[in-house]
Amino acid sequence: MIKAGMIEITDLPLEPEKITAQVCKDTNGAVVTFLGTTRLYSEGKKVVRLEYEAYESMACKKLAEICQEIKAEFGVEDIAIAHRTGVVDIGQISLVVAVASPHRKEAFLACHEIVNRLKETVPIWKKEFFEDGSRWVACDDHQFNPQGHKH
Amino acid sequence: MIKAGMIEITDLPLEPEKITAQVCKDTNGAVVTFLGTTRLYSEGKKVVRLEYEAYESMACKKLAEICQEIKAEFGVEDIAIAHRTGVVDIGQISLVVAVASPHRKEAFLACHEIVNRLKETVPIWKKEFFEDGSRWVACDDHQFNPQGHKH
Amino acid sequence: MLRYCSVVYNNPMQLNVRFFALYRERAGRSTDTVQLPEEATVADLVREVRRRFPRLAPPGVNIVVAVNTEYASSDKKLRPGDEICLIPPVSGG
Amino acid sequence: MLRYCSVVYNNPMQLNVRFFALYRERAGRSTDTVQLPEEATVADLVREVRRRFPRLAPPGVNIVVAVNTEYASSDKKLRPGDEICLIPPVSGG
Q: Is residue D93 one of the residues assigned to a domain?
């Protein structure tokens, strides 16, 4: 578990109300909250549970960098992010991103872009467990080709 | 107070968790929630409180129409909307829109567009009370011109 | 003109009109009853309401009307029992 | 080559490497210690780690490295005490 300002990585269940409450101020008229929840199906296959692993210190730093970039680019001031690690059952929340701003457009665009960048650069990994196996998401090109022709 | 499916217009305080919970399903991986909150300042003037008035039956119907349009246009299935009426103090929530979908892009775009359309067509009105007066928002062109030159 | 008058007085429609928000305050009431000839349109209704409540909106401003919870064009014909509401510019959210 | 070997054995850097997720599982451990010559780069480190754990990633796949919680290019020089982590493709959210 690591917490820095309004960024938190924790193996406890996330509480969206508390995370959203952090960005509510009476100068803000719009609060946009994103919840990432674990889905029952992944590419048509039934998922039993998920596990998240984080390189916590770097993940926290990268999230803080994203917040700084987004604040500068979209002119928003209030951002809170929480990511869960460890086992996350189906239907539970793995990610909460809350953005508040005086007007709605900036809050929507900023929140969306935070989630996009998070998925590109923050060292957190998701493992899907199926009834007959498991896989680390996004690591498909790390499979060894049995014929040895992959380059 | 009027409630139809996942659309609600009420003079009671809104509970975002309950509204968001309505759209969470284990086939959805993304939940985007918008909260409209009352701001302390409106065009630089300090607001003391707000009052919302709704033509409830028509507002409920218009919100249902928006939901149908948005579901068709964005391919999302799960939308919940709640709008508060009556006195709403500063910092409180006047509107909750929650959209869930398997992937995040549709949820963000659909939620944003619902709020845009709501503000254009749904018969709900906001009155701002200042220390020295009050005004119905968006009704500025309904002021009578004292010189009588307005057309 | 003669026929119009006879329709108004011999076989009029009585219509209930609801006012909201700014219009409610300017009319000083939530509802009103107006008499209009059969086959009267939304434009006729607005004209009559403006006559009764001259301070509702400046002459240059269009007054939007909903009939049976649907926005109505000015040439829409009204029928007895229609639910008519005057809709000032909306500002929900 | 001779000089290289002498550096390795006479004045080597000892570096701790952390593995996460897929790499942790493939390495069968969370950390490892590798010895590299002074002035070794990220590319040298990756070469050494691949030698020690040949099943970490197929030859055609780039292994991303973070040094002191920052993504590092392959020509970055390493120093004693650096926190080095091997970062498989991320998938948070």
A: no
